[in-house]
Amino acid sequence: MIATGSKLLARDAGLLWHPYAPLDDGARYAVTAARGTRLSLEDARGERHEVFDGMSSWWSAVHGYRHPALDAAARGQLERFSHVMFGGLTHRPAIELAERLVTLAPEGLSHVFLADSGSISVEVALKLALQYQDAKGRSGRSRFAALRGGYHGDTFATMGICDPVDGMHSAFAPLSAAQVFLPKPPAARRTEQGSWEHSESGMQQWEQATRRLLAAHAPELAGIVCEPVLQGAGGMHVYPPEVLRILRELADDYDLVLIADEIATGFGRTGELFAVQHAGIVPDIMCVGKALTGGYLTLAAMLCTTRIASALASGRGGTGSALLHGPTFMGNPLACAVACASLDLLTGAPGTGSPAQGPWRAQVSALEAGLRAALAPAAQLGHVIDVRVLGGVGAIELDGPVDVTALTRAAVDRGLWVRPFRNLAYVMPPYTSTPSDIAALGQSLVGALEQVHG
C-alpha cells in the first residue's frame, strides 16, 4: 500500500534534513506524482494540490517530468548496465556525452571531466587551476579571485569562493581559505530588442576597482571565478556582459585561469546556450550541471581548453600530470545516457541542424516574452522594488524579506510551486511551458504576493 502524502510528511518530520532548513521544519509538501510541468502535492492536512512547477526542480527539469525520450534513455541503459567504475574503464554513454559537450561548448573547450554534482565540478575546476599554476612553476599561486554576490556550491572549497558576507556560508568562514573578492558588478537589464542597459559610471567604478585588486594580488592568484551574467543565489543579479570581457582580458594579462560557473546558466537559461556567449568570450574552464540530465539524475561536467590540459600533461610541477580527482560515480553510464537524450531535446538530434538554433532557443525566447508580460503587474505592488527577466528567468524583488512559508502556501493554493528566498520571489519554468502556463504563473505569483505582502 502506497503511503498518502500526509502520512509521508509525518514520517519525514524530525527524520530528514531538507536544504537550508531546520530538522523540525514542518513547512513541507509531499510529492505524490509528477508529469509534464505539473506536480501533485499533498500537505499535512491531507489537502491535495495540482501545481505548475515554476522552479523546474531548482532549474534542472527543463523538459518537465516523465518525458518519453528521457524515460526511454534511462530504461535502455538500465537494460545494458547502470554503473561501472570509470577508473581504467570507459563506455559509450560517457564518450558520446563528452563529444556532444565539446561540440556545443564555446570553441576551444575540448577536454571534459564528468563529476557528481555542480559543487564537485567547481571543486575540480579549482584543483585544475592550482595544478596548472604548479605545472607552470608558480606553486605560490594558491588563491582565487571571485565576484562579490557569487555562489558556487556548498562544499568547502566552493564555500570559500562564495560571497563571504552576503552568502550562505558565513558560519563556516574560519574553515574556508581566504580568497580575494572583486566588487559586485553593476546591475544590468537586457531589453526586448536584445541590447544591454546599465550605469556607465557604475561600470567604470567596478572596472577601476577590479583592475586595482587584481594588480595587487595577481602574484598569489591561480584564477578568477564567476557566474557569467547572472548571479543566482546572490539575488538573481543580472550584470553587463562587458564584465566578462574585462575579466577575460585581465586573466590573460596575469596568466590567471578564468573559470565560468555555468551550473545554473548553461543550456539556454539566459537566452544564449551558455551565458559566456553574451560576451563572446571563451573561459579557460567552464562548469555545467543542473539541466544537463533534464533533472533526472545528478551529473555535472567541467570542460577546459587544451592550453590548460596540456600544462598538466607536461608533468612539470609537484602535482604531476594526473588531474587529482576521481569520484566513485564519475561518468555514471545511466546519467550520461539520459544527459545525451536531454541534449538531443535541447539542440535537435545530432545532424539535424545547428545546436545554436535548436529547439531551446525558440522555447526560451517564448519564455522570456511570456515572463515579461506575466510578471509586469507585480511592479504595481507596494513592496516590490524591481521586476526583472532574462531568458527563462523571472525575479520579483521586494523591499524586505519574503515570508517564505506564507507565500509558498498562497502560491500553492493558486496552483503554483515556487521556492522564494531572502527578498526574492523568482521563477525558472520548464522550457516546455505553454503560453497559458506562463500567463497563469504570473497571475498566481502576483496574486500570492499581493495577498501576503500587500
From TrEMBL:
Keyword check for Flavoprotein: no
Keywords in alphabetical order: Aminotransferase, Biotin biosynthesis, Cytoplasm, Pyridoxal phosphate, S-adenosyl-L-methionine, Transferase
Site (Participates in the substrate recognition with KAPA and in a stacking interaction with the adenine ring of SAM) location in chain: 20
Keyword set includes S-adenosyl-L-methionine: yes
Listed cofactors: pyridoxal 5'-phosphate
Pathway: Cofactor biosynthesis; biotin biosynthesis; 7,8-diaminononanoate from 8-amino-7-oxononanoate (SAM route): step 1/1
E.C. numbers: 2.6.1.62
Subcellular location: Cytoplasm
Coiled-coil positions: none
Entry binding sites for pyridoxal 5'-phosphate: 118-119, 261, 327-328
GO molecular function: adenosylmethionine-8-amino-7-oxononanoate transaminase activity
Pfam family, one: Aminotran_3
Family (UniProt): Belongs to the class-III pyridoxal-phosphate-dependent aminotransferase family. BioA subfamily.
PANTHER family: ADENOSYLMETHIONINE-8-AMINO-7-OXONONANOATE AMINOTRANSFERASE
Name of the protein: Adenosylmethionine-8-amino-7-oxononanoate aminotransferase
Species for this entry: Glutamicibacter arilaitensis (strain DSM 16368 / CIP 108037 / IAM 15318 / JCM 13566 / NCIMB 14258 / Re117) (Arthrobacter arilaitensis)
